[in-house]
Amino acid sequence: MSSAALSPVLKQATPVVVDHASGAWIHGTDGRDYLDFTTGIGVTSTGHCHPDVVAAAQEQCGKIIHAQYTTVMHQPLLALTEKLGDHLPAGIDSVFYANSGSEAVEAAVRLARMATGRQYIVTVQRGFHGRTVGAASLTTAGTKFSAGFGPLMAGVATTPFPDALRLKMTEAEAVDYALAEFDYLLATRVQPNEVAAILIEPFLGDGGYLALPPAYLTGLRERATEHGALLVLDEVQAGIGRTGKFWGHQHTGGLVPDVIITAKGIASGFPISAIAAPESIMAKAWPGSQGGTYGGNAVAAAAGVATLGVIEREGLVENSRVRGDELLAGLRSGLSEVQQICDIRGTGLMAAVEFGDPTANAGSPDSAEAARLAAAVQQACIDEDLLTLTCGPTGSIVRIIPALIVTAEEVATGTERFVRAVKRVVEG
Ligand SMILES: Cc1ncc(COP(=O)(O)O)c(C=O)c1O
Fold first, then answer.
1. According to the model, what pLDDT value does residue 360 have?
2. How far apart are CA 35 and CA 185, in angstroms?
3. How far, in Å, from the CA of 316 to the mean position of ligand 1?
4. In which residue ranges of the chain is pLDDT below 50?
5. How far apart are CA 190 and CA 206, in angstroms?
6. Which of 121, 128, 390 to mutate to test the pocket of ligand 1 (most atoms within 8 A of CB)?
7. Is residue 309 part of a domain?
8. Is the Cβ–Cβ distance between 236 and 230 less than 8 Å?
9. Pairing relation of β-strands 195-200 and 230-234?
10. What is the Cα–Cα distance from 219 to 132, expressed in whole angstroms?
11. CA distance linking residue 6 with residue 4, whole number of Å
12. Domain check: are 296 and 381 in the same one?
């Protein structure tokens, strides 16, 4: 008899083994109660085991668990489509479902290529779009996501992100620079009439918890329209209320994408993802190009319907905005004296603290010391019974991702614990 264990390559950010979880809290088998500011990487939007989501999933399990959607249709998927439609921009009225963010990204790439008859996808540097080979080929949030298993998918070109901090520019200067670089890309590498889509996150997720400046997103929208390319927004992490608006791109007033990719927060932890586009675009997908054994699973769809219902009834998009403002204010006032921090930012409940090295490398967020500090703080948080994650191209950022149901008291508790953890690390 042989024994099996999990792959040694799976890297766990905390030593926590969950016994059970509820709302914003995870109760470990070690008897400790952890305030969960990771939400399974932005997934458990309504908190852990929200009673309405649990009830919907339990009820659905008793009706039908798997009703493969190209064989028989099931009611939860129809209901989810209707409910999602209430939140999609006008004209984006056709939805295809898959299981994971990566799978949905790949579906969007297939759709963009088929709908335009062009092959290039332009992505923004530091974007994260997933781990399947196609999605990893679009991912530039870190080489660990795409190194070692090439060749990657061809037909991808990457343009710089307007990162004012690293470029040492104002935001307006960084936007001008990045849009000019985009135009150079189309003059030097990819003909405009070869671009199927510009595919971007409205807020960088794994790449650094950074908002795309509205002027940049608007500039890309104008260029996509001018060149006949689709603007595909990867809202997998920023969507479903995370940033204090239902969609991340709604921070850029009036912007209308061609395709939206969603997953994570849509079903509070059940695996389901989707792409949404105008029917006129969706109809250009080739027959047979959309499908899958598990896509749009009935239990996941029922959980999705319940999740969107909870978000609406409990005003969770607004809660995300208000609690997010409190979180940001608390972090900024508690950490204002810490010289090793070069930026504290957040929109809604997508917050980040970026470390730098004020001595060795003139405040550089890309120094080894910055990454060491971020990792040490994330670990020190665990001692405070607070769960957080790191991110960013060099790991110099701690990201804070509470559930949308988080209370003012929990935000205050989490902020206090975080500030204490930072001070312990920087004061040695
Ligand atoms: C913006 C974004 N796109 C795509 C993905 C990939 O999703 P999944 O891990 O479900 O495949 C992620 C995952 O973190 C993400 O944050």
1. 54
2. 45
3. 22
4. 361-362
5. 27
6. 128
7. yes
8. no
9. parallel
10. 29
11. 7
12. no
